[in-house]
Design a protein that fits this description.
heterodimer; A: 530 residues; alpha+beta; four-stranded antiparallel beta sheet; 15 strands; 15% strand; B: 165 residues; ten-stranded antiparallel beta sheet; 4 helices; 10 strands; cytoplasm (chain B); TBP_dom_sf (chain B); TATA box-binding protein-like 1 (chain B); TBP-like (chain B); DNA-binding (chain B)
Chain lengths: 530, 165
Amino acid sequence: MFRSRIQEKQPGSAFVFSSPERTSHLVKGSEVGPELSGYGLRVHVDGSIKGSSFQRRVTISPKLYRSVIEDVIEGVRDLFAEEGIEEQVLKDLKQLWETKVLQSKATEDFFRNSVHSPVFTLQLPNSLHQTLQSSTASLVIPAGRPLPSFTTAELGTSSCSASFTLSGYPIHVPAGVTLQTASGHLYKVNVPIMVTQTSGRASILHPIQQVFQQLGQPPIIQTSVPQLNPCSLHATTEKSQRIETVLQQPTILHSGTVDRKHLENATSDILAPPANEREIMSEALLSQPESSQYISLPGVVFPPQVSQTDSQVEPVLSVSGSMTQNLNGRPFSTSQQGAQHRHMSDTQLHVLKNRMFGCDSIKQQRNTEEPSNLPVSEKDSNSQMDLSIQVTDDINEIIQIDGTGDASSNDEIGSTRDVDENEFLGIIDAGDLKVLEEEADSISNEDSTANSSDNEDPQIDIVEEDPLNSGDDVSEQDVPDLFDTDNVIVCQYDKIHRSKNKWKFYLKDGVMCFGGRDYVFAKAIGDAEW
Amino acid sequence: MDADSDVALDILITNVVCVFRTRCHLNLRKIALEGANVIYKRDVGKVLMKLRKPRITATIWSSGKIICTGATSEEEAKFGARRLARSLQKLGFQVIFTDFKVVNVLAVCNMPFEIRLPEFTKNNRPHASYEPELHPAVCYRIKSLRATLQIFSTGSITVTGILWY
């Protein structure tokens, strides 16, 4: 098979579609022509758009992927049961799958499309401490609107509870409230803050499950799967005085089934340093006068695996202790940022797997990541720096390496070997070919070669071997390896045609992973020049 | 004189075909899967591998016989063949570059004048053969040089030579 750049084997989140019901999701949309790089390949795709958010590009519907996951899980449920594997494992598999899918850029627009509003839960200051301890319904403030519209909260119940759904960034959060994102982070906001979405980061960070574990703490506060979208929390002091903004995030013991349904709900996340509930909170509440802060908190990303440790609260305490020390000992802006940086890193390092890992936290990762991120944060001297991006870069690199480390076999499905469909034109004329074939036959009959060719240099006899001198003369490095692109198409073909060096592709029923994002098509026509 | 110089100017080698052996069995499927720029013709049991640098196309058989076409000179043909063998070696096959032979050289030249084919054929009885119903050109064979010329009425001539060993 002529391997062009688009057909590289590529690990990715590409699904192999074979079931017809999948295609029912596909709607013949308008032609979109993403320009694939390399030799001017252009593919026109009749893509599928689902949902109300039609963007310029064809984006894969998250529902499609979700339905695939659901079907597969259902399909193997019986098998798992037969094998004697717990239901738990199946659920974990499903979540792992979902998180990986979301992690990858394949469903980058996932949240933009399906999620219409970031979800914040605000808790009125009345029940601050209470809410931290117990699951409470929370307020979700719609962005841009001074008065939130009340909707019933999903999470728990509380005396003071109201849910506001945020319709989008930026979100202006008045002072004196406690924010609780869908991910379960609780933030106590003492200054008016604005939550915006970090640009460019949204694509990188994806909602993840979060397990916040607190040893010796009351059980689950959150039952919903937290989801994080990168967002930057800008704490701007409206007044020129130095006001502290304390963002905390108590660790929440998370057990039980994680509800993935919330994945479909948009979440923006304010990432705050994790903290032991009371201790750190109290420490953090030690107000440190602070100049205007500009804290951007990335969404949480997590390494895929959590190592169960029996580490206790101590590491957490040490973290918090160090944080407080830093709070005390340093210039405020940097210290706070440093602390929060560390916090952020810690949070980011939290692997969000529920129930699998009982009460033990991910403290190891937290601790291990902490020093690595410390220098990162400390390098930043500017209080305006976007710390999150640096941290998230590190994390994202880690994450993405893991995410893209999935190796899914990307063979062309359904590439039947029908001679009818697959016609290639050779460049050798028929006459030449016939002659050549005859020549080949005749040569094969002869064993000795009389080097009687006048024009040639002394050639190799059959007896002598001309060593290839690997690499010496015949260096094929001239043509650099432009291969190994990340763009893959997994599909079936109707016809692939070539004339000299002009190729034409008539493809069908496929998924295109282009630029990390997935596009689904029912028909694709391509032109390429080699 | 003038005609000679014209002929000398116009002749152009368009294709050099060569063969060589790798002395080892080649797994076509593996080449097709792992090689770069390959076309697998499973129905006929060949793999076509195209190279860019010397723009050549090689037909590879599983027996280890490889035919290399598309080069514009013999040097280039050899160079391309070696490069091809090198790439096969990199794929893991124990390739030995043997039996390299230039099999065919194809050249084109243009006469500045038109040619009357029936007359030409009559005057060059033993060498020229002309079947206008089959092919519009006169086929002129030079046995001593092992060359075949196709002479068209427009004056363009295709010279090809197959070296039989």
